[in-house]
Amino acid sequence: MKFIVDKIKLQEAISNTQKAITGKSAMPVLQGICITATKSEITLVGSDLDLTIEARISADIFEEGRIVIDARLFGEIIKKMPNASIEIETIDDKSIYIKCLKSTATLVYMDPENYPSIPHINEDVVLTVQQDIIKHMIRGTIFAAAQDETRPILTGILFEVEEGKLNLVALDGYRVAIRRQLIDCNHNISAVIPSKTLSEVSKILEDSDKAVNITFTDNHILFNLGNTKVISRLLEGEFMKYSSIIPSEYNLKVIANRSDVLNAVERASLMGKEGNTNLIKLDIADDNLIISSNSQLGKAREEVSIILQGESLKIAFNAKYLIDIFKIIEAEEVVMEFNSSISPCVVKNKEDENECTYLLLPVRLVQN
Amino acid sequence: MKFIVDKIKLQEAISNTQKAITGKSAMPVLQGICITATKSEITLVGSDLDLTIEARISADIFEEGRIVIDARLFGEIIKKMPNASIEIETIDDKSIYIKCLKSTATLVYMDPENYPSIPHINEDVVLTVQQDIIKHMIRGTIFAAAQDETRPILTGILFEVEEGKLNLVALDGYRVAIRRQLIDCNHNISAVIPSKTLSEVSKILEDSDKAVNITFTDNHILFNLGNTKVISRLLEGEFMKYSSIIPSEYNLKVIANRSDVLNAVERASLMGKEGNTNLIKLDIADDNLIISSNSQLGKAREEVSIILQGESLKIAFNAKYLIDIFKIIEAEEVVMEFNSSISPCVVKNKEDENECTYLLLPVRLVQN
Q1: Which residues of A302-339 are buried (b: 16+ CB within 10 A; e: fewer)?
Q2: Which residues of chain B lie closer than 8 angstroms to A76, CB-CB?
Q3: Which of A73, A82, A298 is facing B105, going by the closest CB pair?
Q4: What 3-state DSSP class applies to A300?
Q5: Fewer C-beta neighbours within 10 Å, C or N terminus of chain A?
Q6: A–B interface: beta-carbon pairs under 8 A
Q7: How far apart are the two ends of chain A, measured CA to CA in Å?
């Protein structure tokens, strides 16, 4: 194998494929990047079997071939090379020789025969979405996915296509996060993707309107970004019927400035944090939201002006969960809907109530 | 106690005094900031007994008084308050009441009677230096101070005033770092300051030409920055006679571009790091510096163009130590002076050979 490639392009491709290399596998070969040189391009693959990332870059190929090279060391060496063309060549059947201007290095490589084959997927593209949109949808739901493995399916995010709408849904038993986007698609799809792999996918997606093509198979999802492909295994099992959890009616509706509420809750929660509880109380009455908390260290009281439609209400929440939601909504004003102090609260973007729905269960207070 | 103070000023004063609060003391009161309201200003003090930081800010005082308040919680609450005037008042003999616009909090305070008295220092100023200069001098030496406590005096930095020059010196048995600055001072001084406290001092010093007044006593050094005073305990004992270690002659002199050498050493060191050794070899001959390293994972070879005066030489170093030195020198070109493969190497700024001197012991190679 012998090729010459641009340093910046190679560094970017390594950085992308490294995101799939978790270093947790018992197979040493999965610590490596598999590099294949064919015709006029090289392909880099990183994988932990759950997640596989493939990056293609153009190169001058003098001899085709395939090797697996330690991802971390190779990545560090390329990163520190001068910004120029890099020549890479296999020598003596077990090493590669790397040359860039006056810098040279030889590195032992691993046998590519041991590298697992990557899942073959027929790319009959189902969805095309802007990269920044899908990136925001992932970011807007991933925090609500379950952390513990009691119900493995809830550690994933549901990708649901229904009636020309893409819905991303995450829930963990305390809260539900839903983001919606109109798309051009006639299929109905329901697939659950591990949030761990989606977190890496969202790092590769750009904050731009470039397209990403998405393909689903029975076991995998493929994101095709052009020169980079990301393949994730799906989670098996049935996702919770989330739509039945969202209350369709409410007794009480609050319209508030998002950052005013966020700042007030953050301040009030400082007391709770110290006292090992994370409880904050909301007292909603007369166009006024009073947020309070207390612990053995002291107490806090915050007032926020709101627009109130309906009866007054006292309700309590885990401050961290409320902060998560108010941080992730990209809106100046939000709508909060309540039914009672023991029913979930629904939070939406006031400008576009269909863009997202967040639901949070209250903490039931012991009566005095 | 009751006062009204500007939020930004208070936040900055808390942030500065917090740098002395390490949280490692057995005295709970040292987790706190001691706040004293007198006449037209409040004074905040943080201390871990080794290091004491005092910040003064103007305030509207309605009632004088003194309290000690948990530094972390108080700091977080003030930081999250809106950007406006903050009213602070003691209530019910054990709490303070904090009010800022529509935000309020009450916080339990600690008894100021238990707070240790801060060292009294007669400020007969000895030195006046620009803040950015002393900050750079600390930064340029602190990395070479000893980390282990085998010889406690070497964990400090020597502040030496001699013949109108301020020298800062740190050494750990493998390397010596010296920075020099001409100053207007007729005294001769020699004091060793713990590098741990100097690290905090350098965070408070600004990157500006504002003055800092420095006073020495038998046991303490005081940095007076105007509204902020920093007092550090000195280390007891005799510092090593460093000047006798620096060779005054050399057989071989190399002039090189600093960043060329730094980048080459950093690349070559990647191999060494992986193999658990950090050794790099320098082969100096014919206006060429060849840097190489190898481990079981591979090998690297780097070439850097230099100007050589004297004989050729092969010598080896711990790559990390060489990188430390080449990173910290603020010069385009450096001078390296050698005597033999088993004598120390001296590195200087080529533009100003008196500004700094770095010395590094080589690693003795086993002969083949």
Answers
A1: bbbebebeeeebebbbbbebbbbbbebbebebbbbbbb
A2: 270
A3: A298
A4: strand
A5: C
A6: 86
A7: 77
Note whether B105 contacts A263, CB cutoff 8 Å.
no
CA torsion A170-A176-A181-A183 (nearest 10°) is 50
SS (H, E, C) B305-322: ECEEEECCEEEEEEHHHH
- pLDDT tens by residue, B2-58: 999 999 999 999 999 999 998 777 889 999 999 999 999 999 999 999 999 999 999
Q: Tokens 């953050």 map to which residue?
A: A266
Q: Above 90 in pLDDT, residue A281?
A: yes
The span from the CA of A235 to the CA of B99, in Å, is 50
pLDDT, mean over chain B: 94
Model confidence at A368, pLDDT cuts 50, 70, 90, reads very low
Give me the residue from B70, B77, B266 closest to A80, CB to CB.
B266
**Distance from the B70 Cα atom to the nearest Cα atom in chain A, whole angstroms:** 9
Could you count the other beta carbons within 10 Å of the beta carbon of residue B84?
11
Q: What order of strands is seen across the sheet that includes strand A228-233?
A: A65-70, A32-38, A41-47, A51-58, A228-233, A220-224, A211-216, A127-130
Q: Is the dihedral of CA B77, B82, B83, B86 positive or negative?
A: negative
Size (chain A), residues: 368
**Paired residues of A288 in beta bridges:** A285, A305
**How do residues A62-91 score in pLDDT, each as one tens digit?**
999 999 999 999 999 999 999 999 999 999
Of A76, A103, A301, the CB nearest to B264: A103
The closest alpha carbon to B6, from B107, B96, B82, B65, belongs to B82
d(CA A104, CA A97): 7
Closest chain A residue to B301, measured at CA: A104
Mean pLDDT of A244-269: 95
Tally of CB atoms within 10 A around A351:
12
- Of A270, A297, A299, nearest to B80 by CB-CB distance is A270
Overall average pLDDT of the B332-348 stretch: 97
pLDDT at residue A230 greater than cutoff 50: yes
Q: What is the ipTM of this complex?
A: 0.85
The dihedral of CA B127, B133, B134, B137: what is its sign?
A: negative
Distance from CA of B80 to the nearest CA of A (A): 6
Distance CA B358, CA B243 (A): 12
pLDDT digits (tens, 9 = 90+) for A27-47: 899 999 999 999 999 999 999
Q: Among candidates B169, B270, A110, B288, which has minimal Cα distance to B280? A: B270
Min CA distance, B253 vs chain A (Å)? Answer: 22
All structural domains of chain A, each given as residue ranges with its CATH number in brackets, are: 2-114 (3.10.150.10), 127-244 (3.10.150.10), 252-360 (3.10.150.10)
pLDDT of residue A190: 94
